[in-house]
Amino acid sequence: MDAIRFKTGFSLGAASAATQVDGDCKNSNWYDWYQRGRIKDGSNPDIATGHRQRVEEDTELLISMGIRDYRFGLEWARIEPNEGEFSEEEFSAVRHELELLIKGGVRPLITIHHFSNPMWFEKQGGFYNRAGVERFLRMVGEVVQRLGDLVSEYITINEPNVYAMNGYFSGSWPPGKRSVFAMLRVIRNMGECHRRSYELIHELRAAMGYADTKVGYAHHMRAYAPKNPKNVWHRVCTPIVRYIFQSHISHSYLKKGGKVFADFHAVNYYSRTAVAGLKDGTFDGVCKNDLGWEIYPEGLIICAKELDALVRLPIYVTENGTCDNNDAFRARFIYEHLREIANSELPFIRYYHWCFVDNFEWLEGMSARFGLVELHPGSLERTVKASGRFYSELIANGGADAAMLEKYCAREYHK
Question: Among 125, 370, 382, 390, which lies 20 to 30 A Cα-Cα from 15?
């Protein structure tokens, strides 16, 4: 393991999502999914990490670890609990969190939509319903008008491909539909939501007198390779699967009619897919995390190159992390992905680790731990993990030397 130094201007942050940390919301599609018994370990998203009651504590912890870039999300179900009715109390709470972060020298990146919908929107058909576009834009407008003086950077939509495929193709996420047509329609409508939100956010903040607005969407990307390179079927399916899952979104969300609808590339990267047909697969004998996902750092560069080839923009890695329930190899995972970034000529400027505190990982509930900070069941107390201490040292030192790597990164991966 070689020492690494980060380029000037490159920063390390952390990421979270409202439904996964806040708790205190019984009006969302994910709480409804929990009530239907669809969360594997029975975890209740209305508790999550209890962040809403611990905002000051969590912000102080974030700052103490040296983290100065924080991506967090809004809970639409609390912002607009009933259609057309916006909560002054919720906006006041979000402003309070933003003010705490900014006072502590932390730069916020707001995610407007991260998988969770209010039930009134879900019952109207959500993003499958063409009218959902205007409902989403109305909410975006309220967000920017009420928070735009504190926030200059926005993610409009997180991982539209994951949302659409799990909710409308596999049926494993709410609303539990199984239709290729529905999946494609949702992706198309969410694309319009992103592009029009991009224009709306710029327009509203410009009217407020701000010229520093930056907007993007967070794209879940994977590296793809034929499971058996000698197998013709595997080779034929690889570009097809890549296109269905990510490449057509890369094109349609980023550019239309000669116009670019992003100020930065936002890449969420976790793993590689071994293609043996039209389903996800994993190579034999590779290093894996506790969910069985392959650990493949080189794939981050492959994915970033795909976007960079479409249009040259600054690159934010808006999610990267691993399920490591015993914190055995997380530091090594972080190091190896950051090494790829440090050695790349691509314009990476930020890296947000997923996630800050162990949280509610959707269908996995609380059983899959991705955090730099351990969440203790029951008490919900927080303890910084060894990987979290490593992360703090990376920030403080602008990289990692041999002593740091020997101290934190010696553990091997699972195979």
Answer: 125
